[in-house]
Protein 1
Amino acid sequence: MQLLNNNIDFEYNRYALLALLQRSNQFFNHRKLQPVMKNLQINYDKILALKLALQNIDTHKKKVPIKLDLKKGWIYSMDENSNNKSIDEVKQVIDFSYPKLKKVLFKGKSLQENYSSGMQIFPVGIEPAFTKEGYLLLRNNSKQLVYAFKYEMHLFTPSNSITANFKTTVIDVFQVRSGIENTYHNIKYTLTKNNKSALPFPATYVVESKILLPTYATFLPLAKGVLMNYLFGSKY
C-alpha cells in the first residue's frame, strides 16, 4: 500500500495511512517486522522526498505553480499559468502523513536494534576464504529447532560502502537435543554431505537469538544484517 499513488484525495490517503499504521502496530505487537517495515520505509521516503521538493520550491520560487509525478515522487516547477490546486491537496497529505510515518518507522527501527542486540553470531569450523555463499543456521531462544538456510550474496560497492543482493533458501530444519556435542558441526556435516556438488567447503554461520522471534518475518531478515556486519563490519 502506497500513499499518493495516482490518487491525491486527502480522505483517501488519510484512511490508507491509518490502515497502514494500524497494521504496522499489530505486526510490532507480535514481534513481526516484515513486510511492514519495508512498506513503511517506502512510504516515508516518498513523502519525505515530496516534502523536501516542496520546501525547495517554496524557498526559491514562492507561489510558482508546480507539477507532480507521483509514481516517481518528483515535483517540477512550471510556468505561472499552471493550476496549483492539486499541490494544496498533496501538501495536506504530506503534513498529515509525515510525522505519523516518522514516529512508527522510528518505533520499528528501535525494535530492530533491540532484537539485533540480542543476537550472537559465530562460525562453525574453519572459515573459508570464500564467504559470499554458504549456510546460515538460525536458533531461536534456545529452542530445539535449528533452521538451515543456503545463502548467496551478490555485492555492490558504491562510495566505499557495501550493499548486497542477499538471497536465502531454506534447506532443512534440524532438531537438536541437549547433551550432544558439536551439534552445529553435525548439521554442517549433513548439509555438506547432501550438497557436496554445490558447496564442498561451505562457509557456515550460526545466529542465535536470546529473544523468541518469528522466523521469517523478523529473525531471518535481521540475521542477514548480522551476518553482513560480521563479514564486512563498518563498510556495510
Protein 2
Amino acid sequence: MTGRKIIRKAKLLIEAVKMRFSMVSIKRLAKSLRYHFTYKAKAKKDKIIWIDVQAIQKALANEKLRQYAFTGIMDGDWDLETRDAISQKVIGIEQHYIEGTPWRETALFKYYEKRFQNELLILRCKDLDELEDKYNTTINALYENIKTGGYRLPTPENPDIGIIYVYIGREGEILFSGNGNHRLAIARILGIDRIPVTVKARHKQWQNIREAVHLGYNKGQADLLEKYRHLLDHPDLTDIIS
C-alpha cells in the first residue's frame, strides 16, 4: 500500500470518528432539550444540598455512567448497581488518624502496592515513596484544614476546594460517586454531621417524585403531597418546599 493510500485511509477513519462523536453529541443535546421541556421541577445544575454523612452507605458501581452522565435525569437500573461506600481509602484514613498507623502500613497502602503491579501512576505518583510523601503533605493538610475550619464550600478566594458529587436513586437514596473519598473519610472520622454535595444525576423515578411534590405545593394537589409526605425532609426536595 502506497503512502498516499495510507494517508487517505487515515483521513477517512478520522472523519468517521468525528461523525460518530458528532452523532453522540446531537443525541445528548436532543435528550437534554427533551428533559428541559418535560420537567417543571428541574434542579439547578450547580445546586448544593447538605446531606447526612452517615446517609452515604452505597456508592455507584457503574464506572461508565460516572463518566458519561450528562442529562441530569436518567432512566434504567443504573441505581441498582452499587457497592459499599466504605472504601479502602476510608479504612486507611481511619487507621492512620484514629489508630496512629503509619501510612505505609495501612490497608490503603497495601491496596496501592497491589495496584502498582499493573499501573504506572497512582494519584500522579510513580511509586509508594512518592505516594507516601503526597499523603504526608496534601492529605495531612486537607485533614488539618477540615479539622480546624470545618467542611467548607468553594469560594472566590478558595475556588480549588473540591466538592463531592452524588447520584440520587429511584427512591431518593444518596449514592456516592466515588470522587472525594478522602474528604468523605475525613468528615466521618471528625464526626462532621453534614457535608455539602452537588447532584450529578437523578433517577427518572425520583425526578417524577420531585414533579409530584412540586404540583402538591404549587398547584394545590394535596393528594400528591400526602402520598409523598414521608419524603418531605429529603435534602433534594428543599428547593421545592422551602
Protein 3
Amino acid sequence: MKNRPLGLCAVFLLTLTALGCGSELLGLSASDSTDELGQQLGDIMASIDEMGGSSSGSYPLLMRPHARLEREFDFRSSLDQLLISSSQAATCQVGSSYSGCSGNTITRTFNGCTYGSIRASGTVTLTWGGGAALCIGAGAGSTITRSPNFTLANRRGATLSIQKSGSYGQRITDLGSSNYRFESDGIRRTYTNSSNNTTLDFSTETTAAMNISGGARSGRVLGGGTIKVTNHLSGVFCSISPTSVTWGNNCNCATSGSFSGNCSDGKTLSANVIGCGSLRLTFDNETYDVDLDRCFGI
C-alpha cells in the first residue's frame, strides 16, 4: 500500500507552517494525479453536504452565515485539521463574507483574504430554484445549485482554480419523501505552477444522476448514478459509481461505503471510505490512502 496522506490543500498548509520539505508552496503533490483522482470523490461528498444549511446538514433549508458555513470553504477544513493558529486563519475568516438572500441566491465572496502566504479570491454561489422562495425550498421539485469560481494563489504565482466548467455546476433536486437527485455538468480543478505550467487539470460531471436518500446528514446515503472524472492532461477519463456511501453525525463527508469504476485506458479502480475524510483507493492494482482535502470532522 502506498500512503497518499496529503490532499492539495493540506500540502499548502504544511508548507505554510514549515512542516514541508522545501517544495514550492501549492506544488508538493500537485503532480500526483492518483491523489487528485481521490480528491474528486471527496469534492462530490462535501458539496452534497454543503448544500445543506442547518447544523445537522439537512437541506433544502435557508442558508445563513453561521458557524457551520464558516467551515465550508474548501481549505478551511485543512486549517482545522493541521491546527493552524487562529491568527493565521483570521484574515480569510473575516475577510470573506456571505451575502443575504437576494433573488434566491446567496454568495460567499473571498476579497483577496489571506492565511499565511496564500491569497483567496472569487466566489461560491448557492441558488435556489424550482418554486423555492427566499432561499427556502418548497418541497418536491425544488433545487439548490452550487457554482464555485475561486482561486488560491501564493506569492510565487502558483495557483489552484476551482470553478464550474458547465452551465450550472452542481445541483440537488428534491424528489419528495426525503429523496433527492444529485447532478453536475462540470466542476474543474486546475493547478498551475509558478512557471505558468499546468501540471494538474481534472474535472468531474455526472453522466447519470446520483440518488440521495435522507434529508439530514446522519444516515444520508448516496448510491447509483455515474461520475465521470477526466484528466485533461492525459485525456483519460474514469466512470465511477457509488455504493451505499453513508454519512454519520460528525463529518461533512460520508464515513462508510464504496466507489468503483473503469477508465478509458483499460484500468480499473475501487475506493472504500474508511473514515471521516479517509479514502482507500485501489487504482491500476496499486492501493493508496488518500486524505480528502474538503472533508472534516464536525
